[in-house]
Amino acid sequence: MRSKEKTYLVMYAPSDEYNTGNANVKVTVRSVDATASSTGYGLIVHGERSKAGELEDYGLLIYSGTDPQYEVIRHKGGQQTTVLPWAKSSTIRTGTSTNQLEVRARGGELSFYINGQYVDKITDTENFKGGRAGLYTSDTTEVAFDDLEIKR
Predict the structure, then answer these.
(1) pLDDT in the model for residue 21
(2) pTM tops 0.90, yes or no
């Protein structure tokens, strides 16, 4: 999956079978050529389009360059905002190594894990309790996603 320069791309799963309400959602990701996107790539949960067709979701993004970091974002009304700003994390593998991203949704709480290690949590203030799993990438970095898993 690849975006265009200075923008991002979000792809939601094709059906409601991929609903993320009260579920553990995992995906394995890696940079194909070891280039780290400066604005991240990662896993989307509670993804839906508004009545106006705009993105509404939460996302766990990673930067897998020489100073690995993660952030949590929200899309609402077609706008992307930062919920948890970039934070350094030694749990993120760099280069072309794979990273497993996981979001555990329980009611209004979202807990975030990277490679099996808890990193942070938020409360869903937008009431996006359902929606589909999705994938996120930005810039021209090619990212491979594999093994999407949803457990309820």
Answers:
(1) 95
(2) yes
